[in-house]
Amino acid sequence: MYHFNRVCFGLRCSPYLAMKTVKRLARDETDFPIASEIASDHLYMDDLGVSVDTPENGIQLAHDFIELFKRGGFDLVKFVSNSPEVLKSIPQANRLSSKIEFDKEDNMKLLGLIWSPVEDEFSIAIKFNPQAKCTKRLMLSTIAKLWDINGFCAPVILHAKLLIKALWVAQIDWDTEPPSDICAAWKRFLSELPALQDFKIPRFVGIVPESRVILLGFADASEKAMGASVYIFVQPASGPNEVNLIGAKSKVAPLK
Length: 256
Known about the structure:
Elements: H1 14-28, H2 33-41, E1 43-44, E2 47-48, H3 55-71, H4 84-89, E3 108-110, E4 113-116, E5 121-124, H5 136-144, H6 154-169, H7 180-192, E6 201-202, E7 212-221, E8 225-235, E9 242-252
Antiparallel strand pairs: 1-2, 3-4, 4-5, 5-6, 7-8, 8-9
Helix pairs in contact: 1-2, 2-3, 5-6, 6-7
């Protein structure tokens, strides 16, 4: 009889075991309370993203993260920051890139979003074949690649969901070409999809110490779909106010 001494990759239970192991590590290691709390609540599979107020706090937190995970036998690597001061404090082997100063093309992915550290902005990754045939299988495959966890592009994703609904209503087989109206709408959707690459979302929403923060929620519905969005209104002690979208959700109306 054999048993694993490591958390294996590729098994059906692997995602659960990985997250459970980290949560247990964060609970057991009490020497780093802030890092433990963040690791327990802000880790999504193998991505950990967090913001701090000052470079000094970032340097201390990065050090605590490395030591915390080292106690569990993990090497925490691929650190990246929009602060060169924070990056200089992190060992070379733990950084994402050998360069400290990031070029505008040095982007990284975080939960499906592209983050440019130098501009401190998110953008959407678009990968599709504009020449692909119009079939249910290829349409669903393309739509599944539109990963937008925060709903920044909810209106665009909703349009894709409506196309999926039209396919099911028409009872189209997987490799059968849909009716001409669906194909025309699909080709137009593909032709306009690259415009999302120019859509930029600021990571920093303006919250600083002593700010007044208000969350604003909106919702609406029609016969086709329903949607909701949440904005954050930040009123700092000095300087201009800021309003930014922080999340949205859309849902196609049911058939009945």
